[in-house]
Amino acid sequence: MSLTAADAPLCLPPRPLSRAPRALLPDGTVDTHFHVFADGVPLASRRSYTPHVRTLADWQAYAAAVNIAQGVLVQPSVYGFDNSVLLEALAADRANLRGIVVLHPETDKAEFQRLDALGVRGVRVNTRNKGGLPFTSITALSARIADLGWMLQFQVRPAQLEEIAALLPAIACPVVLDHLGFLDLDAADASARVAKIQQLLETPDCYAKLSAPYRLTHVAGYSAFADAARQLLASHPERLLWGSDWPHTELFDQMPDDAELIELTHDWLGDAGVAHQVLVTNAQTLFFSR
C-alpha cells in the first residue's frame, strides 16, 4: 500500500546492537542488501513508510561488530529515482561497496557508464512499494544493462513469481530476487511455495536472497524460514545470497535483534563450506568480480 507523505507512518528504528553474536560471520562476508538514509534529503511524496536517518557510518559500525567485510547498497523506494544518498555512500568506500539503483529505462547511456564506474552493478524493479519501477520496464532495462554486466533485482509480491518465470528467457542479464519473493512461509503449503523459487533458480544466472525472515513468517525463532532456507540450500547453494536487510525498514510493531539474526543465520546455513559459499563466494563473484 502506498500512502501520501502525510500518512506514511514512521517505521521503527533498528535496535542498538547490545551484544556480539555467539559466532561472527566468516571473513569476507558480503551483506548483499542494506539501505542508508540521510538527513535533509527529500523523500518521495507518495511512499509506504517514513524511515529514520541511518547513515553509512551506522551500517559500518554494525558490519564491524558482526564481521561483514563488504556490502551492497540497495536504493530504497522512499527515494524514488533520486540515487544521490546511495551514490554518496559508494564514494565513501569504493573498494568495499557496490550499489543497486533505480533508473528510468530511457536513461542516457553515458549515465549508465558513469554509474558503473562509481560501483553500481544493477537496477531494482520494485512492485511492492510506490517509487519503484514496474514490470513494463524489464525488457528495455535488460537490454540496456546487459553489456555492463549489471543485474536486475526484483522486489515483488508472491503472485508475481510466475510472471518473472515467464520473463526470464527474455532477460539478458543476471536476476536477483529479494527476500524469497515475500513468500508466506506460515502457510500450510510453504514447501510447495518454496519450490517455485527452486524452479526459478534452475534458470542460469538467477539468484535469491536469504534475507528478512521477519517479513515472511510471524513465528518466533523464524523456524519456517529455516525450513525454507534448508530446502533451497539442498538444491541450489550456488544461487543463494545473504543480506541483513539493515536497518529493517517498514516495520512498525516489533524490531528484530541483529545478534539473534546472525546466530540464526549460522543455524540455517549449517555446514561451514555451504556458509562460506552463500555468505562470501557467491556474492563476491556476482558483485565484486570487478
Automatic annotation (TrEMBL):
Keywords linked to the UniProt accession: Hydrolase
Q: Which GO terms describe its molecular function?
A: hydrolase activity
Q: Which domain of life is it from?
A: Bacteria
* Residues annotated as domain Amidohydrolase-related: 30-287
Q: Which PANTHER family match?
A: BARREL METAL-DEPENDENT HYDROLASE, PUTATIVE (AFU_ORTHOLOGUE AFUA_1G16240)-RELATED (PTHR35563:SF2)
| UniProt-recorded name of the protein | Hydrolase
The species is: Devosia insulae DS-56
